[in-house]
Structure formats: C-alpha cells, structure tokens
Amino acid sequence: MVVVGAGIVGLATARALVAAGHRDLVVIDKEAAPARHQTGRNSGVVHSGIYYRPGSAKARLVARGRELLAAFCADHGLPHELCGKVIVAVDEGELGRLADLEERARAHGIATTRLDAAGLRAREPHIAGVAALHVPSAGITDFAGVARALADEITDAGGALRLGEPVVALDCGPDSVTVTTATTTITARSLVNCAGLYADRLARAAGADTGGVRIMAFRGEYAELAPAARHLVRDLVYPVPDPAFPFLGVHLTRMVDGSVHAGPNAVVALAREGYRWRDISARDTLEVALSPRTWRLARRYWRTGLGEVHRSLSRRAFLRALRRLCPELGPDDLTPAGSGVRAQAIDRRGHLLDDFAFAEGPRSVHVVNAPSPAATASLAIGAEIAARHERLVA
C-alpha cells in the first residue's frame, strides 16, 4: 500500500499500518527528507487540548495523542517537557473569554489554576495582564525529531520511503490504486493521503467526496528573541484567543533548544508553499482569488485579516502586538526566525474548518484538514486513519 506525505501525520499513519501487518507499505513524498513543511516549521508546542470543543475530533485525539507522544519521546530519547503555559487576559474586556476557557478546561478534565495579576507576575515576572490561566499540561518537544524517529521505525519494520518523488498522477479503481510519480509508477492495494498542503487536490484526483473542501494556505511568520532578552519569558505565554478565528494569536514560546520564538501571525499565502511574500504561484493565487468562498471568508474576517497583514509588513506593529503581553520587549530584542505555512481547509460557504476532517474514496482514505494541533495528536490520528483504512479494505 501507499501513504502519500512524509510529515508527522503521514509517518504516524504509516507506522500504525506497518504495525497492523502492511509490511509492503511505501511512503512517498516530493521532498528529499521528511518533515520539510508543517511538521518542521511549527512552534514545537505540545498542546493541552484546552481550546477545543468538547466532543470534537481535536479534543478526543489530542487527549490520546499527548499520552502516546510522551511515551514515544521517552522510548526514543527525544526531548519532551511539560513546562506549562499561561493564557493571559491583558485587560478586563478579555476576562469573559478567559472564564469560558476555564469552563472548557473543566469539561475536558484539564487542570488549570486561575491567576490574578500578582500570581501571573510570580510565574512570569515580565508578562503583563489582569489575570491568567496556568495550564501545567502544555509542553514542548521537537516534532521534526519525532518525524525522523517515526521514519526509522517504518524502515526498520520493512516499510520503505521514496523521497524526492512528487505524485504527478493518481488512479483509484475498485480493486487497486496506481500512483505515478516523477520517476516511477506504483500499483498498490490501497492509498492513504496525508499530503497536507496538497491533500485536497490528491483527494479530488482519487475520486473522494470531500464535501467541496479546499485547502487555503496561511503563512505564519516568527521572530526570535535575542539571547539577552530570553529571560523575559520563562515558558509558554499565550493571549486569550478569539473564538471566532481558528488561530491562537501572537504568542511567546520557549523551544527545546532554549531559544524563545514570538509569533506567528496568519496571512493568506500567495502559494501553497509561500513562506515569503515573494513566493507566488499563479495557479495557487488564482485559485484563491477567483473562488467565491474566499470572498465570503473575507467579508467575515476582513478587519482581522488586515491586522494580520499589517503585522506581517510592519515590524513595529508586530512588536506592538507582542508588547501587549511583554511590555519590556524592544525593537533590538527581535530577529527574524523564518515562517511556516498552515494548510487550513475552507468549505463552500467560506467557513474555516475548525476540526480535523477525513474523507474516503475508492480504496483510499484522505486527511483533508489537519492543522494545529495535529502534531500533538499525530500518533492518535495515525491510529484512527489506520483503523479507517482497515474497515475500508476489509
């Protein structure tokens, strides 16, 4: 069988399928190494699950995925630290949303501690706010390292990785699947599509019914705190998120190497791999610009979107957003730290899908929406996809 995509979700799925007896499995990816896109360009945060709607796939799979991830890191000697996070209400107007998060945490059984301004200063002396929630179960890891360890497990168990091989054609019939790459053609019994930024296109090529979902790429740009400013942030510092927008806002994140990253913003990318403003794909840009769903989305979020673009183009605006949380930060405390692109699914009505989403086609299973916290939940997602696959081909 074939798995397309050597990000952390594809590799976790392949590992689960190999464990289920599919020793002839092949993982295909167009990049020369695993984890080149979303997996290797995220903040490294192990999410607690506090943000997600009770009963959602995100809530369920993060809860299980966190346990599996901790055990996997321990077994492979990978860094995994539950350093905790604070979610900060910077003014009185955010206290209601903070209380809603506290209630959601109780519904999930996630331990939190409500901090007043003095309690916040005691935990994060350089962070400003009128109140905060401390979430001790949030943590950090190296997801690219996890992906490499997964790849090693797959090959050690008899599976194969074919890297640097973009899929150029796909034919899913009632009894078999034919995958054509730039260099070869593979005929297999079944297919799992974990292609991330290109998952919707592969799903359509395979004849899967995705409900009209399309991927829209959002770029998130990061800065890094200069070494002299790292003491300003002890662990993870987040603002209270806007519940209407599936992004968590500009935050401060300590990484496993001791550095501290700030960001990201969220701007529509002009290419599915648009890591810079000058990365432009005519096909990708026209697909977004000419789609009615884009304009429906824009009508709903135009103010938020303009703010994100402003923070992308103005270092001063980006710093101002960070100083709401950490007033001591100055312009000399930030250096550019690269960017990532989030594969976010959008439906025909112009709504951003808030939950993980899967689809099935002829002898194929497709992951059509797996944004954050997919890395945290990856091992649980992989087990779920493998179970779907087994039911499909039984």
What does this molecule look like?
By secondary structure, the protein is an alpha+beta fold. It has three domains: 2-76 and 142-213 and 354-393, 3-Layer(bba) Sandwich (FAD/NAD(P)-binding domain); 85-136, no CATH class; 215-352, D-Amino Acid Oxidase, Chain A, domain 2 (2-Layer Sandwich). Helices cover 34% and strands 25% of the residues. The chain has ten helices and 21 strands. It has helices spanning 8-19, 57-76, 95-108, 117-123, 143-156, 199-205, 282-289, 292-313, 315-323, 374-393; strands at 2-4, 26-29, 45-46, 80-81, 85-89, 113-116, 131-135, 139-141, 160-163, 167-172, 177-181, 185-188, 191-193, 214-225, 236-239, 251-254, 260-263, 267-268, 334-346, 357-361, 364-369. The strands form four sheets. Strands 5, 6, 7, 14, 15, 16, 17, 18 and 19 form a nine-stranded mixed sheet that branches. It has a six-stranded mixed sheet with strand order 9-2-1-13-21-20. Helix 1 runs parallel beside helix 5, helix 2 (57-76) packs across helix 10 (374-393) and helix 8 packs across helix 9. The longest helix has 22 residues, at 292-313. The radius of gyration is 21 Å and the shape is globular. The model has no long low-confidence stretch (mean pLDDT 95).
